[in-house]
Amino acid sequence: MTKMKKSSVVLTCLLLLLLSGALAFIDGNASQYIVRITRLCAINIVLALSMNLVQGFTGIFSLGHAGFMAIGAYSVALLTIPVAKKETIFMLEPLIAPLDTLTLPFGVALIIGGVLAAAAAFLIGLPCLRLRGDYLAIATLGFSEIIRILITNAQCVTNGAQGLKSIPKTADIWWCYGIALVVLVFIALLVSSSYGRALKAIREDEIAAESMGISLLRHKMLSFMISAFLAGVGGGLYASYIGTIGPDVFQISRTYDILMIVVMGGMGSITGSVLAAFIVTIGQEWLRVLDGPLPFLPFWPENGVSGMRMVVFSLLLLIIILFFRNGLFGHKEITWSSVGARLSALSGHAHKEVTKP
Q1: Alpha carbon of 330 to those of 159, 325, 341: distances in Å?
Q2: pTM assigned to the model
Q3: Domain chopping of the chain, boundaries
Q4: Which of 86, 164, 209, 335 has the fewest CB atoms in 10 Å of its CB?
Q5: DSSP states along 119-181
Q6: HEC sequence for 284-320
Q7: Does domain 31-290+305-355 have CATH number 3.30.110?
């Protein structure tokens, strides 16, 4: 191992220890509101990375993430809600066997939810991944709505429009950030492998990639299924995070929220997705004050303006896109070598300024 690699490993370990200490401090000392926002940031990291795999690294314009989230969320809910609670939830129509008497550990339920979402992606991808561009986006959007409608009408499985409640809130700050770290490492290793380079080749030019022997349908399908699996896991975390879910939670607007994070961070940037997840999640909460009364503005309505925070946040996002057309990072990543090079350039510039006559 070279000296550069050793120093990178040491710095990464120190960063992980620092982040673990920060999370332990927040978990033990911060208010429940801060803890919840911190957990939501990690869940959005998982979802943003899953979408960036198909959007940024493979070039598949898919809008079906809300449907995959719903599959993962309902799977985790049905497999973790205690049996006694299920009897009180399913009052209009009893839950089908064996779900009515089945309860599994949270980690196992997350994996099952991800697998079911990947299976749905396989069925959706067979007809849809032969399409391109806007046609593919519309097709995946339609399938996402089909999944939501099926959930609404499957009374004996999902409890229909009444939704599911009493979901155990197992997804604490350690579960959320532990899974986010695993997904981050997995995506980083994936995109740097030969398989990841094939995905990038498909993104750049499908005809050239196919001429080099890359199977377009097979690689797209695998990327689509992996993305759906991670979206299902993210949906399961989200279900455990909020404790109550219904079909309205997984409307198309949920896909747009995740897409906004990916676009802001940069299509094809892992670092961008992680940082943009924090910016978007915290920014939306910080701007919530705009929905209420603002006494220091005499012209502001007494009861506030509902939805104003999203208007302002959308304008800020529009400004970022206008000045950073490829997002904050584009295809770039923050690495220890890039940080070191940047610091060296800054120190060299400062030295020149000091030594000027």
Answers
A1: 43, 8, 19
A2: 0.89
A3: 31-290+305-355
A4: 335
A5: HHHHHHHHHHTTS-HHHHHHHHHHHHHHHHHHHHH-HHHH-GGG-B--------HHHHHHHHH
A6: HHHHHHHHCCCCCCCCCCCCCCCCHHHHHHHHHHHHH
A7: no
